[in-house]
Amino acid sequence: MKTLRKLLIGAALLAWILPLAVAQQAILYVGTYTRGGSKGIYAYRFDLSSGKATSIGLVAETPNPTFLAISPNGRFLYAANETNEYQGEKAGSVSAYAIDRASGQLKPLNVVSARGTGPCHLVVDHTGKCVLAANYNSGSVAAFPVHEDGSLGAVSSFEQHSGSSANPQRQSGPHSHSVVLSPDNRFFLSADLGLDEVFTYRLDPAKAVFTPAVPPFVKVAPGSGPRHIAFHPNGKFVYVVNEMASKVMAFSYDAATGGLSQFQTIAMLPEAFSGVSTAAEIEVHPSGKFLYASNRGHDSIAVYSIDSAGKLALVDIVPSGGKTPRNFAIDPSGAWLLAAHQDGGGITLFRIDTKTGKLARTGDALDVPLPVCLVFLKGH
Questions:
Q1: What is the reported pTM?
Q2: How far apart are the C-alpha atoms of 252 and 115, rounded to whole Å?
Q3: b/e 143-181 (16+ beta carbons within 10 angstroms → b)
Q4: In percent, how much of the chain has pLDDT > 70?
Q5: What is the CATH number that goes with domain 63-266?
Q6: What is the widest separation between alpha-carbon atoms in the chain?
Q7: Cβ atoms 53, 361 nearer than 8 A
Q8: Inter-CA distances, 180 with 64, 174, 257, 324, Å
């Protein structure tokens, strides 16, 4: 009887402990450029409590998976294949995978044309029924319906941007660089580096169809080169990182219309810096108290505090730990920031001070060739 009681107590403890252990785990997926030894998408097991990562290895072989997105239910992963030709068509592609949550491996589902060249960014809507992609080289945005099995249908909605802006070398035509959903899933924003415009589109995720909002876009300062976008968790503010100007712009967001009203511009580089640098990634901390943005060339991460009115104040600019920090990601717990270096240094790990927002290098690094995108799958 005592033995049985011990066994029952042990089973109960195990049933209580295992979910806690799983909750402290995540899988880190890494998208890369497939040159110089890289073959596609890599994965790591990531311990949220210690910040330690264990390699799973190559989980999908695919060309230039330079941006990744995971479905809301955690069952599927999508990759923007940044190429200019797909099955004889002048277009890049988007790949769909089923996630094996136990092993972290990816099972290929299908690949579809992006209908534009150089797809560089994508997102899955909050219902998981629609994938949106930005085509950088040709300057367009596209929507794809998601089937029940996670595979993608052909492009169901499409918008080709047109025009130019101040810099003849980089802005002779449109270059759509990102697609970001509003918190309520009714709109998405798209930053076009070539036009110095941030577009707003109204989204019908059930049909995977979008239409221009009213007003359809907001202009930013000529030569800024808007690249990536981050919403504040409260949905009231939007932050845009400008690749060419190396500045962050802050906007008020109108949830009724999807409209943007700029109220601040702040520098990302030290005043004394005179070299060449371009901005890349931007992300708001889950707490809503801090914002981070990366500099390529200066090879650093700028840290800002966010006040109750959404205004930014520079806290620090720290070396990123490698060359060309094209992308970084904050883990689901908000304790760690991982910076991916496209041109050397792999992925470096920082601990986040949740009181000040400051970053402290842990000394750990992950050796991945040409890493350019990091996404987390929590609680696998």
A1: 0.93
A2: 32
A3: bbbbeeebbbeebbbebebeeebebeebbebbbbbbbbb
A4: 94
A5: 2.130.10.10
A6: 83
A7: no
A8: 21, 18, 15, 23
